[in-house]
Design a protein that fits this description.
355 residues, 3 helices, mainly beta, 17 strands
Length: 355
């Protein structure tokens, strides 16, 4: 009886010291991604389609602390299962104007939006949207440095151990900016170890500098040049070590909800160990296996509001002397009080058909 009384005293005291705030959100994400890559020697054509249902709740205290938990349910249209994949999001977050810290399982898109498809290809973003580890960032959107760890595979008798360690940052002064993105992907053995297999790594660093402009009339533009460096090795063989280096150019523009994002690589072929490890070691676009690759992404924002975002993409991939096509539609709708709503909706002429 005495212990129960002490417990209630502690509970009452805690509630009086920290005002708790409860939030909730239900989000639905839909993606349809059709790739026409039949003329590529690096990958095949496919149609990726899925629906994510993501209910989530949060308990916050002290203005900067919160614990978030939810369930991500994936339904793939055309499959017989009611639910094709279940993932749990669960993390602690500390957030202030100068720092963000997360530990647990949380959406990759919320923290690594500055990484392009050189690092994470579209299929990864569609089907493996959560990172499980730690993320820490200091600074603002224009000047920041972050470090992160993502445990993507736990060693068992039949599964390999693998994880990411990453570092990225940006510094801006007016129109000028310089940024970088990097990671090291470590792919290890099973537990107990499988004879004949070992440890391998894939490291990538992209560094660029350029101009970034955002006008009051809604126009946004970016142009930058830099380098993409890598280090790939299979520790079992001394000769299986590669250090590819190449030139990178970026050019983006958007006006009235219509935009384009362009990336170009020219240099030494990458993913030299793909014949041995395939996608187990490489999470970026397979087109980097060529000496040159360019992606030109064209999009239109069909809906843009606090509650619904819809976007259609038509992407062109220039590789191996061919032009390959990709069409993508993404829709995200959410309700709840998880994030403050500004009640503003961006309207362009074509959005009237949804009213």
């Amino acid at each position: 009886m005495k212990h129960r009384f002490l417990f209630f005293l502690v509970l009452i005291f805690s509630s009086s010291v920290y005002a708790q705030e409860y939030r909730w959100k239900v989000e639905l994400d839909y993606f349809f991604d059709n790739t026409e890559y039949g003329r590529s020697s690096f990958t095949d054509s496919e149609t990726m389609n899925g629906i994510w249902l993501k209910p989530m709740g949060s308990i916050g205290w002290g203005e900067k602390h919160s614990i978030r938990s939810g369930v991500n349910l994936l339904k793939i249209p055309g499959m017989d299962k009611i639910v094709d994949k279940v993932e749990v999001s669960l993390c602690y977050q500390y957030k202030s104007p100068a720092m963000v810290f997360r530990a647990g399982s949380f959406p990759r898109s919320e923290v690594l939006g500055n990484y392009n498809n050189f690092f994470f290809k579209d299929s990864v973003n569609h089907f493996v949207p959560l990172m499980q580890g730690v993320f820490w960032q200091i600074g603002s959107n224009r000047n920041f440095l972050n470090m992160w760890f993502d445990r993507t595979g736990y060693a068992t008798r039949t599964r390999h151990e693998h994880f990411f360690v990453g570092l990225s940052g940006k510094i801006s002064n007016g129109l000028l900016f310089a940024d970088f993105q990097s990671y090291m992907f470590h792919y290890s053995n099973t537990k107990p170890a499988t004879p004949g297999e070992g440890v391998s790594e894939n490291l990538q660093l992209q560094a660029t500098t350029g101009l970034d402009y955002e006008g009051e009339d809604g126009f946004k533009g970016l142009i930058a040049v830099g380098t993409l460096m890598g280090y790939e090795r299979d520790r079992r063989f001394e000769s299986e070590r590669y250090k590819p280096v190449g030139f990178v150019a970026r050019g983006d523009a958007e006006m009235w909800g219509i935009g384009t994002k362009n990336t170009f690589y020219r240099g030494e072929p990458r993913m030299r160990l793909a014949g041995t490890f395939g996608g187990n070691l490489y999470w970026g676009t397979q087109f980097l296996r060529a000496k040159s690759y360019a992606e030109s992404e064209w999009y239109i924002r069909l809906i843009e509001s606090d509650f619904v975002k819809a976007r259609f993409n038509c992407n062109l991939h220039f590789t191996e002397g061919n032009v390959l096509f990709q069409q993508m539609l993404t829709v995200s709708a959410s309700i709840g009080n998880f994030t403050p709503k500004n009640r503003k909706t961006t309207r362009y002429p074509w959005m009237r058909i949804f009213h």
